[in-house]
Amino acid sequence: MSSSIVKKDTLAFLKELEANNNREWFTEHKATFKAHESEIKLFYSSVMENLNKHDQIEKMKVFRIYRDVRFSKDKTPYKAHFAGSFARAGVERRGGYYLRIKPGETFIATGFWNPNKEDLLRIRKELEIDASDFREIINESSFKETWGSLQGEAVKTAPKGFDKEHEAIKLIRHKQFIFVRNFTDKEVMSKDFLKVVDESFKTIRPYFDLMSSILTTNLNGESLIG
């Protein structure tokens, strides 16, 4: 069983939660929350079903509504959004997919949010040698129309061991290699939203294929996996 739409009532509930972000209100409305959560999980399952038609997904995770406030200045106990991620299967498939549903701030994201230091160095070394394939993919017209420009945190100057005058230094400086697409509430509630999300995720595939190739080989192009 799956769901192909995000309902107006779900966005309305999240708005109410944001305006009443306290335990008393949430406890009183927990049954309503559970009903919306069940429907959203069905929608995320539909996203995964579609992904598995053109990729292989190992794991879907819909995140808990409860916030970890231990180290945060913001002590509100709940997230006023639903969010979930989809992990690709196998060591040869790198990258992941993410969807957050929040009134006025819904977005999908893909790419490499927090690469470990070995992966980050490998990506930077590849860009140092030759960034032409990377640029060709992210500047392709349908890709750019869907995802816009590369996003993510970057260091202010050249990473240690890299030339600050290198022609690809803007790319090399990145610590994250992600793409984000935002949606209006009207788009989220549209019957086409599920399809648009899937078509967007399909468009990222050449990027994932390139990055997976980079991260599973050494600088000589030799495979690092069995």
TrEMBL record:
<dbReference type="Pfam" id="PF09365">
    <property type="entry name" value="DUF2461"/>
</dbReference>
<dbReference type="InterPro" id="IPR015996">
    <property type="entry name" value="UCP028451"/>
</dbReference>
<dbReference type="InterPro" id="IPR012808">
    <property type="entry name" value="CHP02453"/>
</dbReference>
<protein>
    <submittedName>
        <fullName>DUF2461 domain-containing protein</fullName>
    </submittedName>
</protein>
